């Protein structure tokens, strides 16, 4: 395993982070989820990402039980706050001081921990003053309930404003968690240059584009049984935008490139995001333990300039690069 510094901090995290979005407490049974976590540990993964909203708290509980008994100092555990949780009352959402303070306590209780290594704003809250949000996060750090603060899917301007206030409050934002893959490159134009300037790293999710870059979805063919695209519990909603024949055809053209590099298509996809120097870690999920071991093989791979250029050329017409999508796809009101 390779370990990289997170932002302009002294914290190192594994180049692969195991994430339990959708799967734990929802898509797979608890015993399979635990087996996947154990496979991640066996593969050298030390960083684990979850959120209070995943399966309405159940994902945090599953992860906490799966990691119980492991040496805490050897792990980096991340969680997030923002989306509606619990009974979804009027204050059970957003980044108000009330919700952040109650949110961290709830997450720690479900995880069975006294602190998390990274506490992240799961989105930007347009209805709460940013000063209130940052001061609450600073108090969470001072209380010892989180060691570091990060965000997820913030725009370049939001990162700049947040980092300015964080510095005034005596903390720093050290990470952003955006979607990023060879098919979804919206952070490259604005977010990554701004992050590099501010000392913020990316912990990217969906490096395999919800599974589309695995090559298992074929143009004109039926959706594979048991795949995310057939998951009625939420997975199908997230992959829908990637499932068109043009994208699936382009992905199939990557097969010779992957074979020449000695990689599978999923390994090529993960290796591709790890080539970006601003990416500290790529989040992978798994519904089977063997998927973890396979994805970890992407670590340490150095793709040549010719290979990167060939990937760019093949995906040029289907990759999304519009930097405005970060703001356009964000909540414009606090979710109820």
Reconstruct the topology from this structure.
Elements: E1 3-5, E2 12-14, E3 16-19, H1 30-42, E4 47-49, H2 58-67, E5 76-81, H3 97-111, E6 116-121, H4 130-142, E7 146-151, H5 156-168, E8 173-176, H6 191-198, E9 201-204, H7 235-239, H8 245-252, H9 255-260, H10 265-274, E10 279-284, H11 289-296, H12 305-315, H13 325-328
Family: Belongs to the shaker potassium channel beta subunit family.
Organism: Nakamurella alba
InterPro entries: K_chnl_volt-dep_bsu_KCNAB-rel (IPR005399), NAD(P)_OxRdtase_dom_sf (IPR036812), NADP_OxRdtase_dom (IPR023210)
Account of the 3D structure:
The protein is of the alpha/beta class and 336 residues long. The chain has one domain: NADP-dependent oxidoreductase domain (TIM Barrel, Alpha-Beta Barrel). It has 13 helices and ten strands. The protein has an eight-stranded parallel barrel with strand order 3-4-5-6-7-8-9-10, surrounded by six helices. Strands 1-2 form a two-stranded antiparallel ribbon. Helix 2 (58-67) links the parallel strand 4 and strand 5 (76-81). Helix 3 packs parallel to helix 4 and helix 4 packs across helix 5 (156-168). The longest helix is centred in the N-terminal third of the chain and has 15 residues, at 97-111. The mean pLDDT is 93.
Summarize the structure.
The protein is 37% helix and 13% strand.
Report the helical percentage: 25-40%
What's the level 1 CATH class? Alpha Beta
Number of helices: 13
The tally of beta strands, per DSSP, is 10
Gyration radius over CA: 19 Å
The stretches of 5 or more residues where confidence is low (pLDDT under 50) are: none
| Apparent shape | globular
Strand content: 5-15%
Order of helices and strands: EEEHEHEHEHEHEHEHHHHEHHH
Q: What spatial order of strands do you see in the largest sheet?
A: 3-4-5-6-7-8-9-10
CATH architecture term? Alpha-Beta Barrel
What is the multimeric organization of the chains shown?
single chain
> Biggest sheet: strands, sense, closure?
8 strands, parallel, barrel
């Amino acid at each position: 395993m390779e370990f990289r510094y997170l932002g302009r901090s002294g914290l190192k995290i594994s180049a692969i982070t195991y994430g339990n979005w959708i799967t734990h407490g929802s898509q797979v049974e608890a015993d399979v989820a635990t087996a996947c976590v154990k496979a991640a540990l066996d593969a050298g993964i030390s960083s684990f990402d979850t959120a209070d909203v995943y399966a309405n708290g159940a994902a945090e509980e599953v992860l906490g039980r799966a990691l119980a008994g492991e040496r805490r100092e050897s792990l980096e555990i991340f969680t997030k706050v923002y989306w509606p949780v619990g009974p979804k009352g009027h204050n059970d959402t957003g980044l108000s001081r009330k919700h952040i303070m109650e949110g961290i306590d709830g997450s720690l209780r479900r995880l069975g921990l006294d602190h998390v290594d990274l506490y992240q704003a799961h989105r930007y809250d347009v209805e709460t003053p940013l000063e209130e949000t940052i001061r609450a996060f600073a108090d969470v750090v001072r209380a010892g309930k989180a060691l570091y603060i990060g965000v997820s899917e913030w725009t370049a301007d939001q990162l700049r404003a947040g980092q300015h206030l964080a510095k005034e409050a005596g903390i720093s934002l050290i990470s952003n968690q955006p979607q990023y893959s060879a098919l979804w490159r919206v952070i490259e134009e604005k977010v990554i240059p701004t992050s590099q300037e501010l000392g913020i790293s990316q912990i990217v999710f969906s490096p395999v584009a919800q599974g589309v870059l695995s090559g298992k979805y074929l143009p004109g063919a039926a959706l594979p049984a048991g795949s995310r695209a057939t998951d009625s519990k939420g997975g199908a909603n997230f992959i829908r935008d990637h499932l068109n024949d043009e994208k699936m055809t382009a992905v199939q053209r990557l097969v010779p490139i992957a074979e020449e590099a000695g990689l599978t298509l999923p390994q090529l996809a993960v290796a591709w995001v790890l080539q970006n120097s601003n990416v500290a870690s790529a989040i992978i999920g798994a519904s089977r333990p063997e998927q973890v071991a396979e994805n970890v093989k992407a670590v340490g791979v150095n793709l040549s300039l010719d290979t990167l250029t060939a990937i760019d050329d093949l995906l040029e017409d289907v990759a999304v690069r519009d930097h405005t999508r970060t703001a356009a796809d964000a909540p414009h009101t606090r979710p109820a």
